[in-house]
Amino acid sequence: MKIDQVPEAIRGHLIPHPQGEMFYRCLGCGSVHDISRLLYTCPECAGVLLLEYRDTQTLGPSIYRDVLDYRKVINFRPLNGVFRYYEYIAPVIPPEHIVYLGEGGTPLVEANGRLKGLVGRDFYFKLDGLNPSASFKDRGMACALSYLNFLLKKGSLKNVLAICASTGDTSASAALYTSYISEGIVLAVLLPRGKVTRQQMAQPLGHGAKVLEIPGVFDHCMKVVEYLSERYDVALLNSKNSWRILGQESYSYEIAQDLNWDLENIVVVVPIGNAGNITAVLSGFLKFFKAGIIKALPKVIGVQSEHADPVFRYYSKPRDKRKFEPVEVSPSCAQAAMIGNPVSMPRVMRLVDEYEEMGGGENFHVVNVKEQEIMDFMLRANRNGNVVCTQGGESLAGFKRAVDLGLVEKDKIGILDSTAHMLKFISFQEMYFEDRFDPAYEVVPKEELKNFPVELTTPTFKSAPKQEDLERFTREMGERVAEILGLNPKK
Ligand SMILES: *Cc1c(COP(=O)(O)O)cnc(C)c1O
Ligand SMILES: [Zn+2]
Fold first, then answer.
1. Do domains 108-133+249-449 and 136-244 have the same CATH topology?
2. Could you read off the pLDDT of 437-462 as tens digits, one per residue?
3. Cα of 337 from ligand 1 centre, angstroms
4. β-pairing, 122-127 with 108-110?
5. If you count Cβ atoms within 10 Å of the first and of the last residue's Cβ in the chain, which end, N or C, has fewer?
6. Which pLDDT score, from 0 to 100, does residue 225 have?
7. Domain residue spans in the chain?
8. How far apart are CA 246 and CA 81, in angstroms?
């Protein structure tokens, strides 16, 4: 739609202008810091930061909802992605500096009858694997890189060395966005050797990032990146970077908008790794709730594998017994969430308290699931018309667990996060089909979920035919196919 086709009362609010101020707030000591510095931890107490706003004007909820609906259909590229929600993301970035590579606006796909029957509730997958680098990480990266792009174009930043540790998808996304900006920024990524899939590895390589492999798991890479960011002049692109959290809040905003702002009966299910995503989901719903844009906070359920479940362990204790303790991870098919010491845990604790308080309690839970369930549910989801990754399988397994535990009432509808595309994690499907799982995974393939290609030959043809044999080849091969498929001859 063209902008001049939009009703006049809305038109003036469609294209935003930078306004107000943003600043970092430390969740440890409460101190406030200027955003002109690249800051990832509090300079005073090393606590984790979140971004807040000062002097921003927002519209009333009813007109703002209309503005958002029109932004969905107008042809104004900077707002076609996560910045549709500009006022609640980063209202200090001029629209001309927003980097839009096709992220956000991912579909809600309703589970078919068979899949619903398996779980006993109605639900949808939100397919965040349909982002440009095929994971939800693009939401946060679009925001973090738009901000860096703004500083670069303004000239207040030069020759940036961006860096991140990654279980695969952060590096893929960071590589995509930095390669687009290209001038004045280069990226180095630290990956745990042997702990990212070939498809994930191909992405930062293909986008030209410097890829460094470290022995160990993600938590070790993160330690090294933290060491570097404290001592050297680097721009950190992990979710410790609070700009990424803001972009990822768009996930919640889209759910609200796509459900016509009614979240009364909704249960949102999210896999937890480094806990950046769950932070953003909670924060996004809270912001829209406080602004009156939504009238109810949905229930939020985090899911972790038994092989990497520090957040589950924390919340499964009674409130007065809770003390956060990192865990040592063991191999997990939900490899992108295989993290024992989530960086955003302090953010989660803060937000959960607020979420429960504002929602009247009992609206946040964490469940854990078996590796076997992650794989079986991923395969079943994809056998019913979805394209979910192992972490999407984890969401479905977690939803089922929550239903069995009585956390999801009969009339509730699930929105399950499939955080990446199935193809990124296809090596786990291959290990399942070929029975190649290391025992440490604790996955035993079920015969009925396996699938293989059938190789066809005939006594005459073991390889492709010559041109003059084509007729015979077609006949013999056709009869083999008919036999295998049990086809009935036409009457
Ligand atoms: C990063 C990632 C996660 C975990 O998200 P956190 O923000 O680290 O909790 C889950 N699934 C996929 C596919 C990811 O790339
Ligand atoms: Zn502090």
1. yes
2. 999 999 999 999 999 999 999 999 99
3. 5
4. antiparallel
5. C
6. 95
7. 108-133+249-449, 136-244, 458-491
8. 13
Residue whose CA is at the smallest distance from ligand 1 atom 4: 273
277 CA closest ligand 1 atom index: 7
Nearest ligand atom owner, CA of 25: 2
Q: CA dist 326 to 198, 309, 409, Å?
A: 28, 9, 32
**At residue 339, does pLDDT exceed 90?**
yes
Residue 57 pLDDT class (50, 70, 90 cuts): confident
Residue identifier of the C-alpha nearest atom 8 of ligand 1: 274
Q: Report which ligand 1 atom has the smallest distance to the Cα of 420.
A: 13
Q: Which of 309, 299, 369, 382 is nearest to 340 (CA)?
A: 309
CB atoms within 10 A of CB 32: 12
Count how many residues are written for the chain: 491
Which architecture, in CATH terms, is 108-133+249-449?
A: 3-Layer(aba) Sandwich (3.40)
Q: Write out residues with Cβ below 6 Å of ligand 1.
A: 135, 137, 167, 169, 239, 271-278, 336-337, 389, 391, 419-420
d(CA 243, CA 90): 8
- Contact between residue 420 and residue 169 where contact means Cβ atoms under 8 Å apart: yes
Task: Please name which of 342, 178, 164 lies closest in space to residue 241, comparing C-alpha atoms.
Answer: 164
Q: Among the atoms of ligand 1, which is closest to the Cα of residue 129?
A: 13
